[in-house]
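Exercise 7. Given the components listed, write out the predicted structure of the assembled complex. Treat all entries as one system.
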Amino acid sequence: MVTAAPQRPPGPSAIGRVTRSAATTPGRLSLVAVLLLVLTAVTGIVTALTAQAKRDTLDDLVAHREPLATAAQQIFRSLSDADATAASAFLSGGVEPAALRTRYEFDISQAGTALGKASADVGGDLMAAEQVEILSQQLPVYAGLVETARANNRQGFPAGAAYLREASGLMRSKLLPAAEQLYEINYDRLQAEQESARSVPFAPIALVVVLLLALVVTQRYLTRKTNRLLNIGLVAATASVALTMIWGTVAMVVLSSHVGDAERGGAQQVDVLVQARINSLKCRADETLTLVARGDGPGYEQEWQQLAATITGDGQGNLLRQAKDLASSDAMAGEVQLAVQNAQAWADAHRKIRELDDGGQYEEAVKVAIGDAPDSAAAAFGKLDKNLITALNAGREEFFTQTTRAGNALTGLVPGIAVLAIVAAAGITFGIRERLREYR
Amino acid sequence: MRGAAMRSVLLTLVLAFGVTACASSGHPVDLATVSSVDRPQPVGVEVNPPTTTGAATQVPPCDPTASLRPSTNLPQPGAMPTGSTMRAIQDRGRLIAGVDQNTFLFGFRNPTSNALEGFDIDRVRDVAAAIFGDPNKVQYRVITSAERIDALKSGEVDIVVRTMTATCARWVDINFSTTYYVAGQRVLVDRASQITGIDQLGGKRVCASKGSTSIARLRESPAPPEIVAVDNWSDCLVMLQQGQVVAVSTDDTILAGMVAQDPNVKMVGPRFTEEPYGIGIPKQYEDMVRFVNGVLERSITGGSWVTSYNKWLAQAGDRAVPPPARYRD
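Answer.
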């Protein structure tokens, strides 16, 4: 590193000597050289560190923040799906179908794994730590209740239904809100980190500008003192500082643009889709639980009505339509359009279920809800969920690509800044020494 | 590459401060402290809920078991008299019955067949058979104990058959059929429990269903317990099995259904109330009351009551005798 140390005369009376020598032109020139070198060193270090920090933030976005937000989302999805699946299995009567059992088991393992990953990250965030604690304490309790319900069901005891109700109540009152909050915290952190990646680095900009000004002023001073138009060393120094500034600015603009794309087409798109998925999962659980409660659960149907408005219809609140507007590619828009259609098909099936159930045809209603006919609610929901997963993955892909590109914009910038700073320092040293020689 | 510059800066800082900073006070750090456990609870559970049964209004004294006398001949199924309540039901094509799906032996969902079954459900099927000639033309609407009166008053259901005790207070709002079963309140505890009756429940957590007569009786007990009110009786069994209450107190028939599901609980103490079960019918439909009473009378003389009793309740008590019908007119 370039430092001012060797140029500074040693000894206790250093300050006095500097003040005295500043009174003479050569002394003043030496002092200016020292100050310029210090400023160059500081600017080089700060700028390089800033560029490195940006790079680290972008790497962290791809390697940690986004995967963790996804893990949090997966916790919610798995838990909500487990709740709906347990209710469907109960509705199917007798020994539950193997497919539903497998699905439930898969959901619980997935939730556990995602929870493990999410909990490794909460360190500093008290709110997130609290949610993770609720989830890790209550998940085994939930699974225990479901198994007790199953054991009772197999013996034909209605206590099984009571255990299942308790399990579902626990899921809806504690686990799901905690999972939703954890996702929101993670998404906020993702957004904050994107913002910090995009933020304008004021400190290095100010330093570069000051350094440039200082170099220009020094050259004008020298021109006046020596009547020589150009000083090769100082011109080279100025050029390399200017180059640093241009390079940094271009890199920053490119980076911002990619991070912006990652935000719109990636993170925001994914967030809207996640909200749509969360609501569709809640709707599915409401639909099956209404039938399990057999008229004793009006709250479920009300919630269905509220939430269904966010995934169907022409209103502003339709998240799928919002997702379509945010779509970054035609393929993505097409997938979301399919989701819109399947959501509509599901809403139709749901209307049919309610008509049948309210009209006294409970068994038929159950068939439409959980049967495998192509126009059943189960089929429409399954298709919608697939569309949402595909679109979500496309959104994640977009996020990854754009963020990686943003990182690539910084390629070579850190060593580049170091080299340019050394060139500038050499230029300053060379240029001023030239002039000093003329005074010997 | 990642964080190389940062690391060097950090290293310097650590070297600078690390030497001077000592470890804080010498205790091992415990990262995972759990001070209390949140036990799962049935949805809608309340501890010591305020009394809601309208104690303010004066209830006229009455004989709650006495209902309206049926006409001598029941109309033929599918030929209900024009203008009658039964005709409206026949025209609709189904009877809407408020029932329970959580009380073993009386009204419960058979997890194997998905169908509602039990002694109460058999009563509903008798009524449907009398109207349509088909016991399956029923739309079951599951309601909680607390919802029974409102469901009838709002006209949401035609009848309520849900272990419902006929009381004078309820007669103010709705009509009852004649008594189709007489239960009595008892206490259910763990097999290992030392409790032998209601007088030992003072201050202890006891479970009962919201809006039931059982909950009112527990409040009046000389040794009032801490009442845990739930929506469904099976929630009480869950809480007893989970050790969250020490006892359940309600009609012995309902308790017998719990004993049948769990051999580790037992009923203790004598019956301390008499609960005459009646079918609830909206206040304004007296023709329906007389019709239902006729159906009950016929089911008793025709033997379907006894068959149903033997199927569901023979294990609970040994009184295979149908309660005598009493009429107020």
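Discussion: Chain B has two domains: 66-182+276-327, 185-268. Chain B has ten helices and 18 strands.
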